[in-house]
Amino acid sequence: MTMSDDRVAMHWLRRNFLAGRMPGDQSGQVRLQTLVILRWMAIAGQLAAVLLVHFGLGFPLPLGLCLAVIAASAWLNVFLTLRYRSATRLPDWQAAVYLAIDLAQLAVLIFLTGGLENPFALLFMAPVTISAATLSLASTALLLLQAFTYVTLLAWFHMPLPWRPGETPQLPELYVTGHWLALLLGLGFMAAYAWRVSQESRRMSAALAATQLVLARAQRLSALDGLAAAAAHELGTPLGTISLVSKELMRGKMSEQEMKEDLALLNSQAERCKDILSRLSKRPDGTDAIYSRLPLHALLDEVVAPHRDMDVAFLIEVVADDGEASEPEIWRRPEMLYGLGNFIENAADFALEEVHLAAHYDRHHVTVIITDDGPGFAPDVLEKLGEPYVTTRPRSKRASSDPESGHEGMGLGFFIGKTLLERTGATVEIGNRTDGRAGARLSMRWPRRAIEAEPAFPALAE
Q: Which of 214, 141, 140 has the alpha carbon at shortest distance from 414?
């Protein structure tokens, strides 16, 4: 994958993230069936509570009005079920309107049954919490304001609380005030909590979608690289033969029998090229035994190659920590190439003069350490690095020379790189240098068996 390919891919991701368009993103869209089912549950609960209070406990209440309010909600559900398909996804504003209707219906029912003296007033939290978890911040704020208004009015304006005939309960005003304040605080806290959790979930889902997109693209490009290398390897011999025979034919000094033999050889080699191309077209995964594996130093060279046009020096060092261990050959996995490439590009963006890659291996582990001589990571973001949308830079230093590549950092590079490398079995540690010099330090440590390729020719290895 070339540097220009990386920039095009990341530019596409940034543009779609900032516009809120990610594959499979359904944030802000609620299925109508979900709201209908929740409303049926609320209707069943309200009906059971009203009937239990009136007939079970014998407390008089305006039964006809209460049943009428519950029936209105039921008729709304019936209308929505008949009017729309169950799989319909509601736009943000429409879902907010339906939840606002639920709040109004609940407010009327609570008004008829004692206002805030009724303990079921806490059910105001349900529509607001649903909105905070699924709808936009603006819609949630409007619903929260609506709930605040209802709770405040119901604290002092309501019909009497249903009670034993001939008795009227008198709750202290301080208690009612405390109940009102508790509801306001509860509504605010539950809305804020649900919205924050849902936002984190959406951000993580979108970032994982970006990782999957980058990984799929890297796998396609890796497959193309493998096919190109395999084609060059396997077509070399027949094409060389064709070149040699064609030169002999151009000389023209041969008998008719020799010419027929050479033409037959040309035809056979052309057929061989056709067979090779046909065989390669049926092997899209690029798992050639030779070209899908690289020595550790060659792997680092390949990862660094697309970034050598940057104005920093890259120093690569491969060290054996165990004298008896041989340098491992690593599977040429797109996750590793792209993950390391993201980290190296970030280091080069901040480095003043050089980026150092030190690879250490023994019989059990392979460790790659990337360090730069830049300012290092700020303490306030160091612990959060690797999470999506956590970044250390407002703009890349390449922005002045390349406006397209310069960008406001969104923290996706670190998240994608860390996620892809962890999929290969790496333990990723992100921090600053500990040798007394300024700069960042990233360490990736793999169990050797997780990334080492099996010998291409086991008989020779023995």
A: 214
Model pTM greater than 0.90?
no
The answer to whether the CB of 359 falls within 8 A of the CB of 368 is yes
Indicate the pairing of strand 313-320 with strand 30-31: unpaired
Domain covering 293-460: architecture? 2-Layer Sandwich (3.30)
Q: Which residues contact 418 (CB under 8 A, 6 or more apart)?
A: 339, 386, 428, 430
Residue 313 pLDDT level (bands cut at 50, 70, 90): very high
* Cα 440 from chain centroid (whole Å): 25
At residue 22, the pLDDT reads 45
Beta bridge partners of residue 354, listed in sequence order: 313
Q: What is the pLDDT of residues 8-51, one digit of tens each?
A: 445 555 555 444 444 444 444 678 888 899 999 999 999 999 99
Among the residues of 20-136, which ranges form H helices?
A: 32-51, 63-83, 92-112, 125-134
- Say if residues 50 and 67 touch (Cβ distance below 8 Å): yes
**Which CA distances in Å does 376 have to 322, 341, 380, 386, 442?**
31, 18, 12, 15, 11
- Burial class from Cβ neighbours inside 10 Å (0-12, 13-18, 19+) for residue 74 reads middle
| Dihedral angle computed from the Cα positions of residues 382, 387, 388 and 391, in that order, rounded to the nearest 10 degrees | 10
